Fold this protein.
Amino acid sequence: MKKKILIISLIVIVLIIGVCLFRYFMGPIGFYIGPNSKYRGQGTEPYNKYHNVVFNISREKECIPVSLYLYDDGTYELFTEYEACRPWQSCLLKLNYTKSIKGTYDYDVTKILDESIKVGNFNGNSKDIEYTIFAAGLGTTLDEEYSYDYVITKDKINKPLEELLKKLNIGLDVCAIPDYNK
């Protein structure tokens, strides 16, 4: 009887260690699932042109989301990876995206903001927010009128945003991948 309990205990310990090692080297499985997973981990090093960001859009998720930056020169970046520490490692990193997909756009982005709610005018619960838009406004091609942060709620479809995403052939509904190599 004692021999059986000892064998079962050893098997459980080996399984627990195996799962821990798998998660340590492979990361959480949830990072690799989603309809737009083809974007994740794609791209090269990001631009360092933060001075001309018109705005960035990200979808509210329980993970680090991919993030779309639109620049005033008609270019965009979809950030797909971020600098991260390994699971269970002590870490004090700030969010720093490391890879992005770059392209160009020709779209009146103020249409997206016109269909959104200014953060100061939003009275709902944070659980109602689907997208967050951080607008640069001043110093870019946007007027001062658009130099606010915006939200898009889950109960409202922002047709201009959906149109832009479809035109660019990208999606914002997946998590970014942790980059453990930095």
